[in-house]
Amino acid sequence: MAGWASRSSTSTACSNDEYAMLLMRALQDAGVPVPERIALVGADDLLLGRLLRPRLSTVHMSLPPGDELADLVDRLVTVGGPAPVTGNLLEVTLVPRDSS
After folding, report:
1. Would you place residue 63 in the very low, low, confident or very high pLDDT band (cuts 50, 70, 90)?
2. What is the pTM for the complete model shown?
3. How does the average pLDDT of the chain come out, rounded?
4. Alpha-carbon distance 42 to 58, whole Å?
5. Are 67 and 40 in contact (CB under 8 A)?
6. Looking at per-residue confidence, does 53 or 77 come out higher?
7. Which residues lie across from 57 on neighbouring strands?
8. Which of 14, 21, 32, 57 could make a disulfide contact with 97, Cβ separation 3.0–4.6 Å?
9. Phi/psi of residue 90, each to 5°?
């Protein structure tokens, strides 16, 4: 983690909240202040991210209900061909908090 202090990066987006939380802890242990030196954003909007200090910024993702998703997969497997255009399958929302 010592290398982070010498990098010019000012922000990092992690593939999920767990990795963002682990990175935040490692940066803090190395003396790299979050978000003053580097901003962090995770993804998944886990409850635990709201309890951290600083609170973790994240991306909230909403999938359609399980039965709708299962129906879409079933149609793709049984009918084949290109995926039908049904609108937004995944809705995402940035949840800005203290870490960014």
Report:
1. confident
2. 0.76
3. 87
4. 4
5. no
6. 53
7. 41
8. 57
9. -125, 120
Residue from 69, 19, 9 nearest 43 by CA: 19
The residue with tokens 């409850």 is 47
Residues 10-59 have pLDDT tens digits of: 999 999 999 999 999 999 999 999 999 999 999 999 999 999 999 999 99
Which tokens is 44 given? Answer: 């998944």
Q: How many helices (H) and strands (E) does the chain have?
A: 4, 4
63: which residues sit within 8 A by CB, 6+ positions away?
A: 69, 89, 90
**Do residues 56 and 24 touch, judged by C-beta distance below 8 A?**
yes
Q: How many CB atoms lie within 10 A of CB 16?
A: 13
Report which of 60, 46, 1, 9 is spatially closest to residue 28, judged by C-alpha positions: 1
